[in-house]
């Protein structure tokens, strides 16, 4: 039995949402996590280049986990909220920490 166009539209939208969440949402989340990780490690005394390399290696692995989680999740609203709000909060925390590091330097 073939599906009509009106039945395929919600499915296409759901797939597009998962694609966008896995690619863009994962990137936004890991941007914040990497920024916070780098700033935190530098604040603890690690050299910037070493902190950046470590965080990027971890982010590469975490991106795969987030990508797979997005496709396995049942509730896309929860996925979007977690990825965007988490990424935004971590980016804001990293900005504050970076400003404190610069002011103290």
Descriptive tags:
single chain, 105 residues, mainly alpha, 89% helix, 0% strand, elongated, transmembrane, membrane, Iron uptake protein
Q: State the order of secondary-structure elements, H for helix, E for strand.
A: HHH
Principal-axes geometry comes out as elongated
Mean pLDDT: 92
Global Rg:
18 Å
Distance between the termini: 69 Å
User: How many β-strands, per DSSP?
Assistant: 0
Number of domains: 1
The structural class is: mainly alpha
The helix tally amounts to 3
Sheet-strand content, in percent, reads: under 5%
Unreliably modeled segments: none
Largest sheet: none
- The amount of helix comes to over 70%
Protein name: Iron uptake protein
Keywords: Membrane, Transmembrane, Transmembrane helix
Transmembrane segments: 28-47, 54-73, 79-97
Report on this model:
The protein has 105 residues and is mainly alpha-helical. It has one domain. Helices cover 89% and strands 0% of the residues. Keywords: Membrane, Transmembrane, Transmembrane helix. This is Iron uptake protein. It comes from Parahaliea aestuarii.
Topology at a glance:
Elements: H1 5-43, H2 48-72, H3 76-104
Helix pairs in contact: 1-2, 1-3
